Structure formats: C-alpha cells, structure tokens
Amino acid sequence: MNKLFSTQYIVFILIGVSSIIFCQKSFAENKKHDGNWWQIVPDMEKAVYITGYLEGTSLGRDFSCRGINKGDKKHDMCEKIEKSYEGQHSKYLKNVTNSQIVDGLNVFYEDVKNRKIDIRGAVWLVLLQISGESPEKMEDIIWCSPTECDEKRGKKCHGKRL
To answer: Helices (DSSP H) in 41-118: which residue ranges?
Structure first.
C-alpha cells in the first residue's frame, strides 16, 4: 500500500512539473504581445504585467528629459512633454485600477477580431473606453494608426485594424 501510494505521488509530481514546464515554454515562445498572447497569460501574471506596463510609462517619462538642464534649448520641449504626460495620466489613469485594465483587456480580446491587436494598442483602447469615449471614436481608432487618426481628426479612415 505504501509503495502504491508513493508511486502515485511520484507520477502526480511528474505530471505537475511537466505541465508547468510546458506552460512556461509555450508562454515564452509567444513573443508577440497581442490578444493571442494575452489569452494564455495566467490571471495573476496579467495583473503583474499591467503594473509593470504602467510603471514603464512613468520610467519612459522620466527618461525623456533626464539629463536636459534648464538652460538647454530642449528644456521647453521637456516641460511640454511633462505637461502632456500629466494631462494624459490624469485624464485616463486617475482612479483606474490595474484590475479594471485587466478586465477590460480580457473582454476586448474575447472578440477574435481583436486578437492581432498588440497589447499597447489594446491598453489604449481600454483606457479610452473606461474614460467614456464614444464607440464611434473607438472604432475609428481600431481601424487607424495613431498618426492617421490624428491627421484625420476623427474622420473614418480605411486602413487595417491596429
């Protein structure tokens, strides 16, 4: 009886370890961070990813002007970058939780048509939705690159999905 129990225990451990290794391998092989990737990310890792993603935006803001002194010609541009960042952060991230973003991405990527959209574009669309942006504008953004949408100022453009 003891031998049978220990054999079953060892088989159970081997299956568990094999499953973990297989999942990690498939997770690592999918290098493109899009909806297909998002579908295989465990829920806890989604929250951690979004936390890092948002921290990365702050770091990017900091790096944008680090090392530019007040007397430098580029300092005025840095002030504009800071003001833009703070305005966008306040408009789209104030009082928004990481779990709201994760939930929004889960819903967004349920639609198979959205799965090729990279995570960066999807996070932006989710933040727009949370902020109350109209469905029409959201559809325009899905079908336009950010530059095209800026140039067309909200007019429908006929490109490929983000």
So the answer is: 43-65, 75-92, 98-110
* Residue 153, token pair as written in the block: 């100022």
Whole-structure pTM value: 0.69
CA-only gyration radius of the chain, Å: 22
- Cβ-in-10-Å burial (0-12, 13-18, 19+) of 33 comes to middle
Average pLDDT over residues 137-155: 61
Read out DSSP for 84-97?
A: HHHHHHHHHTTT--
d(CA 110, CA 123): 14
Give whole-number Cα distances, 47 to 42, 52, 54, 104, in Å. 9, 9, 11, 12
Classify residue 100 by burial, with Cβ atoms within 10 Å: 0-12, 13-18, 19+: middle
> Cα separation of 70 and 147, whole Å?
31
Token duo for residue 71: 């007397």
Q: Output the pLDDT for position 158.
A: 46
Q: How many CA atoms are closer than 13 Å to the CA of 85, on its beta-carbon side?
A: 17
Buried b / exposed e over 127-148, threshold 16 CB at 10 Å, is: bbebeeeeeeeeebbbebeeee
